[in-house]
Amino acid sequence: MIVAEDSVLLRQGIVRLLVDEGFEVPAECGEAGAALLGLVAEHRPDAVLLDIRMPPTHTDEGLVAAAAIRGAHPGTGVLLLSQYVETSATVRALAQDPRGFGYLLKERIADVGELAGALKRVAAGETVLDPLVVERLMRAPHTRGPLDGLTAREREVLALMAEGRSNEAIAQRLVIGGKTVETHVRNIFTKLGLAADLLDHRRVMAVLAYLRA
To answer: Are 28 and 7 in contact (CB under 8 A)?
Structure first.
């Protein structure tokens, strides 16, 4: 188990409670960027408990990290903790494949047993969603974004691009030919309006569009 929470007192309190409940917590982290992803890659925990609003902007760093963790380590459960109900496209995308995914509101957790039980379920591949989160997600209006024109396969390719994988690595992961990956990548660039003569690297810009969606 890895705990990511920027409040030192809250993070250490959660870690102590989890250890008392019998969890092994080999690492903790105060941010949701490269340091957290490195710890997950090093320790390969059953689950990661993380806040949504983390440094430096305290907006969606936890959501971006959750998406990256699920993409790179599909066997690792992710339990989001927040004071707020987020209904962004990232949350909806995470909830579309709910296996090993949880989202609880801090103020609605009754006791440590409830938190411990949620973590065990997420680590086992189950889903744990606060009813208020489900209600807000069901009511959230869908606004068209730049990725809406992509096919399901193109979204898979773009997600793997966001993990930093090369075309060859994407082909191996999806068990498709290299030429097919190249076609998907070209289609992604076209649908996102990334012209070949752009000064910025189109691959980087496509990944940024994915992370912002």
So the answer is: no
User: Whose CA is closest to 49, among 130, 103, 114, 129?
Assistant: 103
Residue 181 CB burial class (10 angstroms; 0-12, 13-18, ≥19):
buried
Identify the burial level of 191 via C-beta atoms within 10 angstroms of its C-beta, where 0-12 means exposed, 13-18 middle and 19 or more buried. middle
Residue 191 in tokens: 């649908």
Contact 49, 4 (CB under 8 A): yes
| CB contact at 8 A, 57 and 64 | no
State the greatest distance between any 2 C-alpha atoms of the chain, in Å, as a whole number: 58
For the segment 88-119, what is each residue's pLDDT rounded down to a tens digit? 766 766 766 677 888 899 888 878 888 999 99
Q: Note if the pTM is more than 0.85.
A: no
**What's the rounded Cα separation, in Å, for the pair 180 and 2?**
37
